[in-house]
Design goal:
alpha+beta, 6-stranded mixed beta sheet, 5-stranded mixed beta sheet, 12 helices, 27 strands, 28% strand
Length: 488
Amino acid sequence: MARKIIYFDKLFGFSVTAITENGKLTDCRFTADDGAPAIGDIYKGVVVNVLEGMQAAFVDCGLERNCYLSAEDLPRGTEGGVASLEPGDELMVQIIKTPCGKKGAKVTTRISFVGKTLIYLPATDFVGVSHRIEDEELRDSLIFAATRAKKAGEGLVIRNFAPFTTYKHIKEELGFLRACYKRTAEIYAAAPPRSLVCTDFTMPVRVMREFMEYDVERIITASEEQYAEISDILKILPGGKGIKLELYRGRLDMLDEAGVAAQIKEACGPRVELEGGAYLVIERTEALTSIDVNTGGFTGGDSLEHTVYQTNLAAAREIARQVKLRNIGGLFVVDFIDMQQPGHRAALTEELERALKKDGAPFRVLPMSEFGLAEFTRKRSGTELSSFALRPCPACGRGNGYSDPFCMFIAYSEILKALDGGAEGVCAELPPECAKLVTARADFAAAIREKFPEAEVYIAPSQGVYAEGCRCRPVNRGAAVRGAVKLP
């Protein structure tokens, strides 16, 4: 069984989360603590446009772009669909898909509150059980318990964590979620239009609610604030008392020392190395994501067909990890290495399905074509990693380089490594906009001073654009560095 380690940190206005399974990164999130829209946020929106031909409406929630409301996301039993709406109508809506590119957020009027074992639907008369609970007798028992616990007009969905909890806990959690809805309704009644009414829980709560299972070994955080919060959460979560919580006190960046930072950088690039010398090339387009599988330096020790088959199996497992880690959605076309035996093609498709099933996101895999191409779809939930870490190259506009915030995280990690290596001072050469960002943030210098109080750190704008984002070089203490700014 895979053993998970969850890492949390708060740095430079961002909440950072990384999850590893047996040392391999499977999930990574950078969430700005700036009030940006997140899944689960509830707004008091105003209808601005109704498109009956598309069976949809656009709702102004005070965000950069209007939100998209489908007829399928109106309350059950709404007569007339979107035709029942008029511009100016006020609606309580909840984000179910965050903005991406030029698209605004997708919202629903079917408000829900997600707990550890329950999803509470305050205005939807419905009872359901997660499809991941397959035992029919257990499903019937849970449906009976949920039907007895809920009130008329309410809805409950039993999550896959429910078999590991008690009926008493379900009732207590339902009471808590009811109280959350009551408070939200009171705020909504008094709130002005186009305003945020309720935001989802903090990053540690959201991640632990989503990923907390009985195979979590440790939780490590470098933030004292998060340490206290997580400690309180573990006291009430089922199985939480058996999970070890650690406060990182090292001199390096926590993710860098754990070997996670290097995996995050790899997830931002098109090439992914596989064991034995094989590799993947992942390229995004407007219509789909193409993935090419290459043997590279992998030669194997058996026949060519066996070598290709083993390479393709390893690639299928890595593809599932990468699409989850990068949080990519839509259509995927995979060019596996050609295999001659039909049994190998069928087995490869089954392996890809097994690997994608672990993700939990809805997907569909088609049989492999005669050309050795495999097609599958995956539903994205949340923000893609690339939307935070990458930006179009300012020089050519075609390629991608590191974004300024991600460049700042890399600079912080590299500076700490240089200082830990014995340097009295460090000059970090950064892209111009990133250099401005770093020198403007007092918390960047404070974070370094906390670990190395006597060190001298200089930030210099580079003359070119560096894909790696940061070039550090040791300097003598007190040395003048031309064009550089010394951090306080």
